[in-house]
Every structure is written in structure tokens, then in C-alpha cells.
Design goal:
Layout lengths: L1 H22 L3 H30 L30 H14 L1 H4 L2 E6 L3 E6 L2 H19 L1 H4 L5 H10 L11 H19 L1 H6 L2 H24 L3 H12 L11 H16 L7 H7 L1 H4 L22 H7 L1 H6 L8
Helix pairs in contact: 1-2, 1-10, 1-12, 2-12, 5-8, 8-10, 10-12
Bound molecules: protoporphyrin IX containing FE.
């Protein structure tokens, strides 16, 4: 509980500092211009550094994690998706993993029941909440293109129409906004209520969830209650993207809060567990074909090793061994 409280207090402190800085002439330019640029630079350099380090890590063997029959003899049926032996199979498996979180779908939970008896059950809520959260986030980010690009890309317009299909008034309420709130709330309460998960949860686990939740809430507040001036915000955002920043006076406190939280997320991402967004593509346990029985894989760093065989050893100590009455291969 302390970890959750300190994570929430940290996010709240960032939000309050941003609201204060946004209302102070002079400081607001730093917050609106220097902070986003610095955060973006940290994001790009940090991610590149992580990717370079991952790609330099030696992978001498095929080490995919599989749960299906490997390709071997022609009369033994192999599992093309669970244990893919071709590149097409790997692409299929990766696509299902990234788009549908297939391995998480097999998630199980365990419980000690009376007896005592350890019972394993399928646990699909985590899969559902994770899937809803990630898809909602993607839709929200793609929809944000309307604030950053002119003319607005067709994809952003189509998503906007689909996402806001149940218009209950103005402004249109987005389905993705509701889903991201529900899924984040589920993920957070799971960490707090499940004793095993709570035991292994760190400050950083809560921080990531609370930060994402605060970004979503501040964005929704701007849209549905504070009614931010999106025309001014778009001018400002486009100015940033073309490196001609200008800070209009009417951006609003909530926008500064939203921006500061997004900048925090961007700068924090490369050094946090959220970097799995890039790591999943580069994971050798996922992106390698399991053709260990079809192909002979040689360790690329094999070098000639100087060995001392038993025969040579026996020859060296032959006389001593014979004198001690030890058995000899060559008497
Ligand atoms: C991780 C990145 C971001 C996330 C998760 C996020 C999330 C959200 C969410 C959930 C909303 C509520 C309305 C909606 O769904 O469109 C929103 C609104 C908004 N966001 Fe973001 N946002 C992000 C980045 C940004 C950035 C970089 C900007 C700067 C231009 C920005 C500006 C806005 C504005 C102006 C609104 C109000 C839109 C309206 O009134 O229709 N957001 N954001």
C-alpha cells in the first residue's frame, strides 16, 4: 500500500508542479518547449540505446519458448504456430502474440483450497484487461494525430468516427476513453487486492499504472469538462513538430498537466518495464524459428580448444600407474 501511495504522490506532485509552472510567465515556455523536446530526445536516444544493446547480445542457439511439437521426422505432425520452424510460422506466431496477447490467454491462477489442495484455474481477466488497455491506448494515440498533423490523416478521421459511434451529446464520448479507464482500474486493483501480486509489486509497477491513468484522466478532463482550446493547442503542437515553437496564452492549466505527464512517460519509458513495447519484437524466445532438429547450428564463437586426452594422460603417468598396480588401457 505504501508503494501505491508513494507512486500516486509522485504523479500528483508532477501534475501540481506542471499546473503551477503553466501559470507562471517565463516558466511556462520552459515547460511547453524545453521539457517536451528534452523528453523526446531522451525517448529516442534511450530507446535506440536499448535496441542496440539488445541486438549486440549474443544468441548462439535457437532458444524459442514453445508449447507444441517441434518439426522433426516427416511422419510426426509438427505444430506450425506453437513451435514454428519457418519464417512464415514465426511471423504468424508473433502477430498473434502482439495483436492478441496469445501467450497471456493461457494464463492460469493457483489457489490453495481445503484439503489442502492446490487448484489451478484458467485466469482470463488479466488477458482481457491487458488487451483492452493496449488497444485503447493505440486508438487514442492514433486519434491524437488530428492534433499533430495537418491535413488530418484519414486513419485518424476514420478511427474518430468509429470510436465515437455512440454520440450522446457534444463533445462525442469515445469508447476507447471508457475502456482505458476500466482496464487500468482493473490492472491497478489486481495489484492491490491479490496478495501474491501485491507482494511482488514494486514502486515502479504502480508508478507506470498511475502515470498512464493520470494522463488519460487529464486528457478526458480537458475534453469533457475543461473544454480545452484545441485550435490553439494544435497550432502549438504543430509549431513544436516543425521546430518553430510558439506558446499561445490560452493553452490552459490542464493542458500543461497533460503535457508534463506525457513528457514524464516519454523520458521514463526507455528505462522502465514499459520498454517491452520494443522488446517484444527483439525477444529471441519469440522471434526465432524452432528448427533445431532440421538444421545444425554451430556456436559462432567456437575456437580450437587445446585438450589433453586420457590416452595422453595415461602415457604421461604410465610408469607410475603400472607401479601402483592401476588398470591401464595400454599395458
Ligand atoms: C502517451 C501519450 C498520450 C496519451 C495516452 C493521451 C491520452 C489522452 C486521452 C485519453 C484524452 C481524452 C480524449 C481522447 O481520447 O482523445 C486526451 C485528450 C487530449 N490530449 Fe492527449 N494523450 C497523449 C499525448 C498527448 C500529446 C503529446 C498532446 C499534445 C498535443 C496531447 C493533447 C491532448 C488534447 C489537446 C486533448 C483534448 C482533446 C479534445 O478536447 O478533443 N495529448 N489525451
Amino acid at each position: 500500500m505504501t508503494r501505491l501511495l508513494s507512486a500516486s504522490a509522485t504523479v500528483l506532485a508532477i501534475a501540481l508542479a506542471a499546473a503551477l509552472a503553466g501559470s507562471l510567465e517565463g516558466v511556462r515556455t520552459v515547460l511547453a518547449v524545453a521539457v517536451p523536446y528534452a523528453a523526446f530526445a531522451v525517448l529516442v536516444l534511450g530507446l535506440s540505446w536499448r535496441v542496440v544493446r539488445w541486438s549486440l547480445a549474443p544468441v548462439p542457439f535457437r532458444i524459442p519458448t514453445v508449447c507444441g511439437q517441434q518439426k522433426s521426422l516427416p511422419w510426426i505432425a509438427s505444430s506450425r504456430l506453437e513451435s514454428p520452424h519457418t519464417t512464415a510460422g514465426v511471423i504468424g506466431r508473433m502477430a498473434l502474440e502482439i495483436l492478441a496477447f496469445r501467450s497471456l490467454f493461457r494464463n492460469t491462477g493457483s489457489r490453495l483450497e481445503r484439503g489442502p489442495r492446490l487448484v489451478y484455474r484458467e485466469a482470463r481477466w488479466l488477458w482481457l484487461a491487458a488487451l483492452l488497455f493496449h488497444w485503447s491506448l493505440l486508438v487514442i494515440l492514433l486519434r491524437h494525430l488530428r492534433l499533430l498533423v495537418e491535413p488530418v490523416p484519414t486513419l485518424a478521421l476514420v478511427l474518430d468516427r468509429l470510436d465515437g459511434f455512440f454520440q450522446v451529446g457534444a463533445p462525442v464520448v469515445y469508447l476507447s476513453d471508457g475502456l482505458i479507464l476500466v482496464s487500468l482500474t482493473y490492472l491497478l486493483q489486481r495489484r492491490v487486492r491479490n496478495p501474491q501480486v501485491r507482494y511482488i509489486s514494486l514502486f515502479t509497477d504502480y508508478f507506470a499504472l498511475v502515470l498512464l491513468g493520470a494522463i488519460a484522466v487529464s486528457g478526458m478532463w480537458m475534453r469533457y469538462f475543461a473544454r480545452a482550446d484545441t485550435v490553439a493547442i494544435k497550432q502549438f503542437a504543430i509549431g513544436l513538430t516543425v521546430f518553430r515553437p510558439a506558446v499561445p496564452a490560452n493553452l490552459g492549466d490542464w493542458f500543461f498537466v497533460h503535457l508534463a505527464l506525457v513528457a514524464t512517460l516519454a523520458a521514463y519509458l526507455p528505462f522502465s518495464k514499459l520498454v517491452h513495447l520494443g522488446g517484444v519484437f527483439l525477444s529471441p524466445t519469440r522471434n526465432l524459428a524452432n528448427n533445431n532438429r532440421m538444421k545444425r547450428h554451430l556456436n559462432p564463437w567456437n575456437y580450437p580448444v587445446k585438450v589433453h586426452t586420457y590416452q595422453e594422460w595415461e602415457q604421461e603417468f604410465h610408469d607410475k600407474m603400472a607401479a601402483a598396480g592401476l588398470p591401464l588401457e595400454r599395458p
